[in-house]
Amino acid sequence: MALREIQTLPAQVLRRKARKVKDFAPDLQALIDDMVETMRQAPGVGLAAPQIGVSLRVIVVEYGEDLEDGRPPKLYTLVNPEIIRYSPENEVGIEACLSIPGFAGDVERSLEVTVRGQNRRGKPVKIKAKGWMARIFQHEIDHLDGILFVDRAKKVWRIEGETAQIAPAD
Length: 170
Ligand code: NI
Prior knowledge:
Bound molecules: nickel (II) ion
Strand content: 25-35%
Number of domains: 1
Structural class: alpha+beta
């Protein structure tokens, strides 16, 4: 495993539509391992492959939603993810991004989403997510289409010393 350099604006790779993954060979496994390591080290709660300069449809998400229960955060690796259902209810929350250091913004997202994709071995998976998890999936999957939170934000402001990719509202 190795840490990869996180690409920040104005890196062009962040604005490109990423390619679909067709090959689940060792190269992909190494990429995913590196993404997990890079996300944890940042630290962040999610990372998309374009953020480390690889224009492929892969995301990793690890959010400690259940920390209060003493349960460790669950790690999700999704290849070729797509959102197949958006709840009609939306919610505004504060987002930031490792690729846009020093900024945060208010972004309206669907409160619940259903995501379909493949796991790292190519097996089909479907995930229903709510609240912050749903927000993180929407943010990361946007990265695969070259969309950044600032494109969707109602308001963007400067922050200091904030490194988490998506900061809880409080
Ligand atoms: Ni981001």
